Amino acid sequence: MTHRLTNFNWSLLVVTSLILLIGVVNLYSAVYYWGEEGQSSLFWSQLLWILIGLVVMFMANFSDYKLFHRFATYIYVAANLLLIFSLIFGKAVKGTYGWIQIWGFSFQPAEFAKIAFVIAISKFYSEHPEPDGFSLLDLLRPIAIMALPFMLVILQGDMGSSLFFLLIFVSVALFAKIKTSSIVFLLIVGLIAGGVTYQFGLKEYQRSRILNFLNPEQDVRNTGYHLVQSKIAVGSGKIFGKGYLNGNINKLRYLPERHTDFIFPVFAEEWGFVGSFFLISLYLTLLLMGVEIATKTRDRFGILLTVGIISMFFWQIAINLGGVLGLMPLTGVTLPLMSYGGSSMVVILGCIGIVGNISRKRFIF
Amino acid sequence: MKLTHEYTSDLEPRIKYIAILMVSFLLVVVVRLYYLQILRGDHYRFFSTENSIKESKIPAVRGVVFDKDGRILVESRPAFDVVAIPQYVLESRKVLSTLSRYLKIPVETLEASWEKRKNQPSYQPVIFKKDVSRDEIALILTRKGAWYNEEGPDDLRGVEVVVHFERSYSNGELAPHVFGYVKEIDGDNLKEYSELYPGRYSIGDRIGINGLEKVWDLDLRGYDGYEQHVVNAVGKEVDFEGVAEHLEQRPTIAGNSLYLTIDEDIQAVAQSFFAKGDSPSSGKSGAAVMIDVETGGVLAMYSSPAYDLNALADAGGGDYWLSVAADRKNYLINRAIQGAYPPASTYKVVTAIAGLSEKVVKLDEQIYCSGAYFFGGRPYRCWREGGHGYISLKDAISQSCDVYFYIVGKRLGVDRLAKYAKLLGLGSRTGISLPDERSGLIPTSDWKIGRFNVPWQEGETLSVAVGQSYNLVTPLQNALVAAQIANGGKAIEPHIVDHVISSNGEKIYQWAPQKKGRMDIPKDVLDAVKEGMVGAVASPSGTAHRLSKYKFSVGGKTGTAQVVALEANANCRGDKCRDHAWFICFAPTDKPKVAAAVLVEHGGFGASASAPIAGAMLEKYFEKL
To answer: What is the ipTM of this complex?
Structure first.
């Protein structure tokens, strides 16, 4: 590899860094009122994770994504083993078992499992093209590939993350083309399965979140309360926001998830419509850059991997924003690159690095 | 056909759909942002800067408890507390000194309460004084103006008057053990109840403790409501246009009401006998129970000593509680179902039933009582020193001859005796819906080996046959025995709650018997025993003859339970050595309607201490018919 620095995708790095910068500055504000202790440790540890993430990003950027293709199976198996490990030995946080603690660091195997899944699924579709669309039978193997981490994550108690596997799978499968008849069939099965899961699989508070969203009058206090506070925070930003560090009066002070799920309302309150629009544009730019890279890539695996990563990124943004803005039920999904969260940060940055790598390689065919 | 992995034209054209999808969604987000931040921006800005949403819990009114004639026994009254919400208190010193003047409480006491705010969120109120008077409420609410006057002496910002409900009783000492009381939930109860009934209990709730309040708590408590207010920076509620529809509120649902089988008047009669006064039972401990012989409905259940539920519900309730709980007289025990005493001679009816049913003795068999019966080398004495002479079953009951029953008991053996006792419901809980009922004790030979690892001695059977030795019976159980003899052997289930009506008038529970049918005892046996009990009152030589003065006919059995063993009796001095006084009865004698059991601890003779209470209760019953 002689041309390390040529074909380097600078725009990707610039946009990502902009978002990171905004994220860091915003995070400081989010934890500002928590007092000395809470403030410092969270803030600095996020910086640390970003640093680690950037290192991983550069490593991924200068590696060869074809390696992932070769080692896809191993990566997939390792990720699932980590999930199982966290189920057995993990420490429980807020009712979920999704965390492993090593030497004082906690990380979530589920995040790693997402990218491992994307790699695995990309390998599958790249090796089995079906120009006429996949039938149900054809889909059995990819469904199985999805089912394993999906179930493990559900066992962990993390509904939000498990949803991801489903969404990414559907996105990539649809992208790889499914026969119309199969789509219809799957829709029906999906609805039934959704209904069954709703009745028997969900915990009470999860059910109440959905109910609460659909029918605010039947509110079960706390969940509706958070949404109301979130909307007030966002709306009160008006056009130009209240200004940096001025946003936390009363409203969000009582929300325990300010630094994670509700990081966007913190930002929106302080920077208003202008700031929010700018941030959304940055995210959209990043996503569309990914699309452009996918368009210009010459090999199947590269395209699929890019599409998979884009869909990971997109769905996370969509579900988080949708939830805090009251467009869909709150699910506890965090906003990539903005929310506090080490594992998520490292994985997302790593994925951006992979996409950067793919964009470099496209000239080598 | 194996395609090379260079083939990408199936995927390429589809990539743009992804772009379209993402752009569309983010467009929706932007539109939503426009709506929230630009269209409703002012609205939300107002909410956030100057105002906040405050939620207040609206306590539900607890259900009412009625007696069988529909008279109110237990209801709720509003009680007002003076509280302060730390979030809205701007100058705590001034507020505390203001309150100290208004409420006449020293500032140090208020400061101590104010410290508690550190362990709870600042929107949660700190309680300064509970159950304040109307005057104090008026003072605070009139002085708390919409604007704060900096130069004035008073600062009431953050101070509020909130209402909660306390129980109020028409007669606080009527039936404290039956009703139970209401208290704020503690940690252990909260944990237990949250697991059993998720979502129904939370911190700060008031729950029923003891008695019906506890057993029927889920019915009585109703559902709390809550409402959201918009409140400005000074803590005053603000009505902002367009806000009301966003505020959530849920109305309370009042608790269900219990309709008891208890008759307030009959219960009051029992109360009067045990209260301070000049009857032989005044000031003594004991219990009185009256039940309907056909249905098992409890018309009266009194336990002495009784404490005052109104005093408990008042402002000084905490101290009153401590004095009651610590008193050596054991106020808190419901002696009607938790007091287990030797039944003494009242047990003879059981022995008679057993003896006749097992045919170890005939109805007209004459047995000789000389005043003592020698067995195992020692005399078992009859209460009548000279003995009763030849006596048969009915007279033996009426005159309560001990020797007759020693002999019948010996013929039966302890296990056969126990069989009939248990058939009549002794030795096990009646299952009445009150907590902590005791099952009493009916000894058998197996039981003795299991308990003491020593075999049963025949001589002990003699004591058991006259209701002493290991026998233990609660007043309710004894009333049950009398009732089942009176109703000809029908098995009945004692209960106190007849039906429950919800807050919107629906009957949601009606008591109905679970078991049906007769006990396995021949009817003629029961009739014979019944006649013996009739004779105890009707016959001049009957031990309860003094009750024959009433216009209605009564059948009964007296009992005098030894507290101290005979030998030691001579050396024992004072009231606590006196025997417990029992009396069980039913009335009227043909087609009986009710049965009763009265026990007076250390009351002396059953006839003199307990029978008059039962008689008076019956008199009230017939007066009301």
So the answer is: 0.85
